[in-house]
Amino acid sequence: MDAKKSHSKLVVAGLLLGLFMAALDQTIVSTAMTTIIKKLGGFESFIWVYSAYMIAMVVSTPIFGKLSDMYGRKRFFLMGLTLFLGGSILCGTAQNMDQLIIYRAIQGIGGGALMPIVFTIIFDLFPVDKRGKMMGLFGAVFGVSSVFGPILGGTITDYLSWRWIFYINVPIGILAIIFISKAYHESRVVRKQVIDWAGAILLTGTILCLMFGLELGGSDGWAWDSAKIISLFVGSAVLLILFLLAEKAAKDPIIKLSLFQKRLFTSSMVISLLYGGVMIAGASYIPIFIQGVFHKTATETSSVLTPMMLGVVVSSQLGGRIVSKFRYRDIMLVSVLTLLAGSLLLGFAMDTSTSRWVITLYMVIIGLGMGVSFSLLNISTLNSVPPQYKGSASSLITFFRTIGSALGVTVFGTLQKHNFQQSVQEIPNMSPEMASQIKGGQALLDPTIQVKMGLSADAVNGLLAKLADSIIYIFQWSVLLPVLAVVFVLLMGRARMEMKKPGAHESSGQQSNQSSKTDGAGKPEPNFHGG
User: pLDDT tens across 6-57, in order?
Assistant: First the structure.
């Protein structure tokens, strides 16, 4: 690899643009969705605009991670950019909700290639002493995109058209393609590869059954105890067992199961999953709480997550800079205790009388606890595996974080809806029919729906108070996630980033200390640390 060319600012710029674009599309659609529904219709299926993107990304992430290990990072990163741009252009031309959902799935497949490969390329390109700083920079992109996504989505929709929230990806993506094509030079030793088709198909089936069960469960005609939902979850479990058996037998598996025997690797995955659940709870329900309690419009609350995400950006940068000075466990322990403190404050110190600036402070604490994970977990994971598995390992961090978010949305949504429905029954003169129409209570935030349902001002205020209480209730449950994360942080052991020793030579993309040990396929396997 030509280090001088590959380490150029153009490569970093291209990777940052690609990652920002993929991360941005997870949030930019939210504030534009009301307008999209008015233009395209399809209110009953609009949730799939989000779900299609997430499901496609979850399915494709580990597959692209493995393929990048087998055939090189550059080609699959460029493929991901191309798919993402194609999906974006198609989304902008959608004439109905069904088309938009299909095109969002194409975007999601592209996003599944971009996110994990970005971090793997950074690990390949930069020496040990610079990886922490670069991982912090790239980890902060998630925070920046979460801050600017809703704001940008609302602004573009108000002043241009909702279609431009997708078209804006075109110049960004084209620049990324030009920069990577021109500046990133990758040379790999090619060996005969065998694609694990059985593993890829079984993994896809496992995730699809699980995600469809989570997304459809509790909706009309899809009760949690219905045969259809139970069949999806049983099917997912059966396919998972078959996938594990296939991976054990595969010569070159999609996911090398022996990696999970390493304590550091497994702990990093579980922590990523748990943090994903905490983050989705805050990102989903803090805006609803603010909107209901302080009577703000959806547009006015588009920037409500800014304090939390600024905390994410700051701590992601800080985590990347100090990772070489302390053990992973010690840094993550500070992170998880900060996250636990923020979760306790949201769940047990906040109520409808809490002032806005105090809630902002709680959000900053949550962000500071969360951000470290975006940089440090990628570093701890990639440092714990041999070079030939780094693409797969990086993809699994994204995979588990996304699964954590999906599980969090479902579990917290079910808890919130159940608590709200129970509390609504305590309101005088509230008929069962009216209570069933309100469902989880989020519809109350739309003044037009309040009028349509014939609710008085007093009734609306009473219901919004119950909605706020139900959100506090799920924040109380969310405390369990950082508590569990503490356990897995302690299991990370004494591992730390191994710095290059004076006089030692480290080629790009490889660890410095190598042994004659092989990985079973005849390739030299370097010594790697991680408990």
Answer: 457 889 999 999 988 888 887 788 777 778 888 888 766 777 887 788 888 8
Ordered DSSP codes for 70-92: HH-HHHHHHHHHHHHHHHHHHHH
Average pLDDT, the chain: 82
Distance from C-alpha of 424 to C-alpha of 438, rounded to nearest angstrom: 9
pLDDT in tens, 45-93: 777 887 788 888 888 888 888 888 888 888 899 999 999 999 999 999 9
Write phi, then psi, for 52 (nearest 5 degrees): -60, -40
Residues in the chain: 531
Rounded-to-5 percentages of helix, strand, coil across the chain = 75, 0, 25
CATH topology of domain 1-186: Growth Hormone; Chain: A; (1.20.1250)
Instruction: Please give the DSSP secondary-structure letter assigned to residue 226.
Output: S
CA distance linking residue 339 with residue 234, whole number of Å: 34
For helices 263-293 and 457-478, angle between their N-to-C axes, nearest 10 degrees: 170
Task: Quickly list H helices, 160-226.
Answer: 164-167, 169-183, 197-216
Architecture of the domain whose range is 257-497: Up-down Bundle (1.20)
- Spatial separation of the C-alpha atoms in residues 210 and 213, rounded to whole Å: 5
Tokens 């390493």 — which residue? 262
Nearest to 100 by CA among 89, 109, 91: 91
Structure token digits, residue 44:
């009953």
Is residue 485 exposed (0-12), middle (13-18) or buried (19+ Cβ within 10 Å)? buried
Structure tokens, 293: 């309690």
**What pLDDT, in 10s, does the model give residues 366-377?**
999 998 998 899
Q: Does the pTM of the predicted model rise above 0.85?
A: no
- What percent of the chain clears pLDDT 70, i.e. is strictly above it? 83
Which residue type, as a one-letter code, is found at position 337? L
Closest CA to 290 of 357, 356, 367, 361: 356
286 or 188, greater pLDDT: 286
At 471, list the tokens: 């959100």
Q: Are 131 and 123 in contact (CB under 8 A)?
A: yes
Residues of the chain with CATH 1.20.1250.20: 1-186, 257-497
Cα–Cα dist 441/294, whole Å: 16
Q: Which helix (H) or strand (E) holds 514?
A: strand 514-518
Residue 323: Cβ-neighbour burial (10 angstroms; 0-12, 13-18, 19+) = buried
Give every CB contact of residue 427 below 8 A, 6+ residues apart in sequence: 459, 462, 463, 466
Q: Which of 368, 349, 373, 374 is nearest to 359 (CA)?
A: 349
